[in-house]
Amino acid sequence: MKYNILIADDCRVTLGIIKHAFNSERDKYNIITANNGREAYEQAIENVPDLILMDWEMPEMDGIETLKHLKSTDVTRDVPVIMVTSFKNLKEAFDAGATDFIHKPIDKTEMLVRVKSTLSLFKLLQGITRQSEQMEMQSQMLAEQKRSLQEEMRKSDQLLLNILPYEIAEQLKNKGTVEPKKYSRVSVLFTDFKSFTKISEQLSYEEIIKELNVCFEAFDRITTRHYIEKIKTIGDAYMCAGGLPIRNKSNPFDVTLAGLEIQAFMNDFNARKREAGEPEWLLRVGIHTGPVIAGVIGTRKFAYDIWGDTVNTASRMESTSEPGRVNVSGATYKWIKDYFDCEYRGKVEAKNKGEIDMYFVNGLKPEFSNGSPITPNEEFLEILSTY
Fold it and tell me: What confidence score (pLDDT) does residue 385 get?
């Protein structure tokens, strides 16, 4: 590889001396000449050289002015320039961007040494610059990959949280498994729409999904507000539980309030249906309190679920309820009786369970409500905070 060296000097004698000095190195250098600063600048822009040897004093545009033009132009900014001068004060040249200097009269050996060292230095700097640029590009790529990975992890975490409770999701991420847990007091709530098959026969599939989604989204908002964990939906049935995965003693009250709010939402929902002349969606709600086992099942599709007789009994509370009512078992009634207005139904036959004491919950007692039977007052909330 030959280096292209541009020599700018208005003195033919000096040009001849410099060109002659490179004769012994002609296999390494291509020599280009310019007779003044303007010509040197134009040639440098047209064919960017590897090095410029430039006289300080030249007509039309002297060496310092030419140097300033070269350093302010993108394509020539990084080209090394060696000033050839008889001046001793070189500060102005270095301030303008000169790389090195050669004093007149020119010493051939000194000139060749300075040329070689300058080219070697700038070749090294170019290599370092390229490596730095490559490292910067790699750094940007890594940063982008990191951002992309973090975004995918965020989406993955969010998806996991849509399936599992936060505490269970964290345990699964950190340990890879989730140990099943036994809870001594959990209140399980089931809902189900009466005559759903008949309703669905009057609607398209899209309308069925849309209506169910409206209802279940409302149920989700209500249960979340009362710290209740949604377990799953099964067709038109909705199942949730209070008192897990974080244990608490207030779950019979929380779940009962949620059941009343769900029925209040359905009352408003059905009022709009009646006005529009559309079929009503009549809902049954059942609640039972007792022990359960909770855990995660599946390896490819995770599911947080609960098991035990409490779940079966809660399901029977729903199936033996009536549309628009919240039906609770005697076990749940034992916890809520002092604060809620309950209507004893007697012992009701439940499939595979025999006769069970059941109660309809009409709402909070007046002394614990805030103008509405489903809205607790400060006194009730204070009592609730002690559980």
Answer: 87
Q: Is 112 exposed, middle or buried (0-12, 13-18, 19+ CB in 10 A)?
A: middle
- Tokens representing residue 49 in the block: 């050289």
Query: Which range, of 141-155, 187-201, 247-261, 309-323, averages the lowest pLDDT?
Result: 141-155
In this structure, what is the dihedral angle of CA atoms 208, 209, 212, 216, given to the nearest 10 degrees? 180
| Cα–Cα dist 215/10, whole Å | 91
Which pTM was predicted?
0.62
Q: What is the pLDDT of residues 176-226, one digit of tens each?
A: 667 788 999 999 999 999 988 888 888 888 889 999 999 999 999 999 999
What domains can be seen in the chain, in order of their start residue?
3-130 (3.40.50.2300), 178-384 (3.30.70.1230)
Pairing state between β 228-234 and 181-193: unpaired
d(C-alpha 231, C-alpha 239), whole Å: 6
Phi-psi region of 116 (alpha: psi -120 to 50; beta: other; left: phi over 0): alpha
Cβ atoms within 10 Å of 14's Cβ, excluding its own: 17
Determine if residue 301 is left, alpha or beta; phi over 0 gives left, psi from -120 to 50 gives alpha, anything else beta. Answer: beta
Write out the H or E segment, with its range, that includes residue 303: strand 303-307
Tens of pLDDT along 145-182? 888 888 887 877 776 666 666 667 667 666 666 778 89
Amino acid making up residue 143: A
